[in-house]
Design the sequence.
């Protein structure tokens, strides 16, 4: 009988605690019988030693916004919320929240703890307007397992407005994240106003996209201060990242004298690692960077400045007389030591201003000062090096939220233990915590929240409460937070599915094209147009399969209600005489880029701006060699075919292309032969058309396309020594 009652007590305790869905889970939560009723008559009182005016103001304002209930600060009425200091708490962020039927008692050592207690209290309240709210009686004793619980937002690849940043700060704070790492500069854009160098934003903040549109934007210093202060009031420290000495092409476009060469540059509209870096052998580079830091540091009261330091190709330094002279003068044996010299020099400057340097784990190359904080993204091995060197570390690699939800699932994020590596556990005082970066090469305001939530909730819990984990129990609490996220207008995503996967299929027999869409959430819908205009929430809704039978430009995007969830995509279908004709492949494309199938060269589909769109076909180190059989002698005046180059992805234009024609498929006459002056180190996306035009009609049955690949990638390329890829899409005959 005793065992029965003990088991019943456990079941009842689990059921009661299940009704309390606080995320992150408190370290200790004891549920008691009874309820506290919160109304507009509820007072807020403080012990004499408590100086928490900002926290009280946030409590009043947030509960009024959330529930409509107006609390009474400094009133003496009952019931009441009472704030009291407890110096015995070991952690500055710790708090104790005790709720009885008569009062809510909040105890903390600092205002940080008081604030987190308020956020837990908010999660016990409804996120809807009400005259009164019942709060269960309980006691929470809580403190974070890790001091550094951060989110990194890349605003350089795609710009995000201040309103979006503030919304994320609100959500981070609700879930007790305390670091916002603001990635403000990169190759594709400079996003922070520097008054001494105005071209950083007038030139470096803008780029021309492959479709001809202009993308860009930047934050004024006034806006930066506004965001920093907004975060501070929510217990969040905002830390800037100014990338150096690599990932800086936008700055070099604005001020070419900071590069090792004077070649003409544009702000890139493609992704990857670029060879253009700050020429660290030039003294003017240090003057420039110190000037920039002198304007950045006063905007960010934090003790920390992130300087990037990752993915720095050394080719430009190897060819630079200034860099080689500096290496000789400083006795540096190689360019890795030159990078270390640069990092240490910048670190010394930051230290002279009372700041601590943070950098990605490449700052260890050539030796790093142990006072630097290392953000580890390339695996635990790099973290172990940093720990052995005496550095404090922040873990980022397991939490790249730009990874598809289907790959980095909610469960994986939740279950990852930041102290699972023995070296990490042995040196746990050096493991400060972690960040979840959102790199935005393929992320915009449309799909950012799909990538962030609910995974951010799992991340916050894994950092706040590193104790025993139960995914199903956590997931049950997450279900209670979906209505909250909906109320807060958060476009959250799926727990284990990507937003959308699409493919377009060609039916040669029917001469029709079918767009198949696989959506990550049941309440998402595809809206589309057939004339190339961007779809809206009022555009027609596609079924799982959308079939078209005539030339058109299918443009589509996923929507949830009236909210668009990703940038629109397009497939261009063109009519021409080669569509659905038989192709004889003497050299087939590689399997991973042969999605269009046997009719890939004659399926009427034109490739877009991305080589991975499922329309382009690719060959690695092999030629294109294909013959199209028109079925009978066919009259035409023009033949053309496109090729694409994206050097960072190892894709180069062909050395040469030949288009020839035949009556019998054996003896061919050359129509056009073209050679290319391929530039294997050229940044960005390049498209070239090889075409033949005849004033007089031509009659032939067979058309042959031959393209010779570039060959081995040259020195200075990120894939030097590897085979270049060759990509083409469609043979167009008219």
Sequence:
């Amino acid at each position: 009988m005793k065992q029965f009652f003990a088991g019943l007590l456990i079941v009842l305790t689990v059921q009661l605690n299940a009704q309390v869905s606080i995320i992150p889970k408190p370290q200790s939560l004891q549920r008691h019988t009874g309820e506290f009723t919160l109304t507009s008559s509820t007072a807020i009182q403080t012990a004499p030693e408590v100086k928490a005016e900002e926290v009280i103001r946030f409590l009043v304002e947030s509960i009024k916004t959330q529930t409509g209930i107006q609390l009474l600060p400094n009133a003496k009425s009952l019931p009441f919320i009472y704030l009291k200091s407890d110096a015995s708490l070991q952690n500055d962020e710790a708090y104790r929240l005790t709720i009885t039927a008569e009062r809510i008692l909040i105890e903390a050592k600092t205002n940080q703890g008081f604030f987190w207690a308020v956020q837990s209290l908010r999660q016990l309240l409804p996120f809807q307007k009400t005259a009164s709210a019942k709060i269960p009686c309980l006691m929470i004793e809580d403190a974070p397992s890790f001091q550094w619980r951060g989110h990194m937002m890349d605003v350089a690849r795609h710009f995000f407005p201040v309103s979006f940043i503030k919304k994320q700060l609100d959500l981070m704070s609700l879930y007790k994240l305390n670091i916002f790492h603001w990635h403000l500069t990169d190759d594709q854009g400079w996003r922070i106003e520097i008054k001494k160098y105005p071209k950083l934003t007038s030139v470096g903040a803008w780029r021309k996209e492959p479709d001809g549109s202009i993308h860009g934007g930047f934050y004024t210093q006034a806006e930066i201060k506004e965001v920093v202060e907004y975060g501070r009031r929510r217990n969040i420290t905002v830390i800037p990242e100014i990338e150096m000495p690599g990932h800086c092409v936008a700055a070099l476009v604005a001020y070419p004298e900071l590069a090792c060469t004077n070649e003409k540059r544009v702000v890139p509209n493609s992704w990857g690692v670029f060879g253009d870096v700050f020429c660290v052998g030039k003294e003017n580079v240090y003057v420039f960077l110190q000037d920039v830091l002198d304007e950045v540091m006063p905007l960010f009261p934090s003790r920390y400045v992130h300087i990037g330091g990752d993915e720095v190709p050394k080719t430009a330094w190897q060819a630079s007389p200034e860099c080689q002279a500096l290496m000789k003068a400083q006795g540096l044996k190689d360019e890795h030591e030159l990078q270390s010299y640069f990092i240490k020099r910048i670190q010394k400057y930051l230290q002279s201003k009372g700041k601590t340097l943070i950098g990605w784990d490449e700052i260890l190359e050539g030796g790093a000062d142990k006072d630097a904080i290392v953000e580890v993204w390339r695996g635990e091995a790099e973290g172990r090096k940093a720990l052995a060197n005496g550095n404090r570390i922040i873990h980022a690699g397991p939490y790249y939220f730009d990874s598809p939800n289907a790959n980095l699932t909610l469960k994986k994020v939740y279950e990852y233990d930041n102290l699972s590596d023995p070296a990490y556990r042995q040196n746990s005082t050096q493991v400060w915590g972690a960040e979840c970066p959102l790199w935005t090469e393929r992320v915009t305001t449309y799909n950012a929240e799909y990538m962030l939530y609910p995974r951010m909730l799992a991340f916050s819990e894994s950092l706040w409460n590193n104790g025993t984990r139960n995914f199903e129990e956590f997931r049950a609490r997450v279900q209670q937070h979906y209505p909250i996220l909906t109320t807060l207008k958060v476009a959250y995503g799926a727990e284990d599915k990507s937003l959308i996967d699409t493919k377009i299929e060609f039916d040669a027999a029917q001469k029709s094209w079918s767009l198949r869409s696989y959506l990550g959430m049941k309440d998402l819908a595809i809206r589309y147009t057939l004339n190339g205009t961007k779809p809206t929430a009022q555009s027609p809704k596609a079924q799982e399969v959308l079939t078209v039978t005539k030339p058109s430009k299918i443009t589509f995007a996923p929507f949830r209600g009236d909210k668009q969830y990703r940038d629109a995509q397009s497939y261009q279908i063109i009519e021409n005489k080669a569509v659905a004709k038989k192709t004889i492949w003497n050299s087939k494309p590689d399997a991973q880029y042969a999605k269009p199938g046997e009719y890939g060269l004659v399926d009427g589909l034109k490739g877009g701006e991305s080589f991975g769109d499922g329309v382009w076909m690719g060959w690695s180190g092999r030629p294109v060699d294909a013959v199209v059989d028109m079925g009978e002698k066919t009259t035409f005046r023009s033949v053309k075919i496109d090729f694409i180059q994206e050097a960072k992805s190892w894709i180069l234009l062909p050395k040469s292309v030949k288009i020839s024609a035949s009556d019998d498929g054996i003896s061919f006459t050359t129509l056009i032969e073209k050679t290319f002056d391929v530039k294997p180190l050229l940044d960005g996306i390049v498209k070239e058309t090889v075409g033949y035009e005849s004033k007089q009609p031509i009659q032939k049955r067979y058309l042959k396309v031959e393209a010779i690949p570039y060959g081995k990638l040259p020195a200075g390329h990120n894939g030097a020594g590897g085979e270049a890829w060759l990509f083409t899409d469609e043979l167009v005959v008219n």
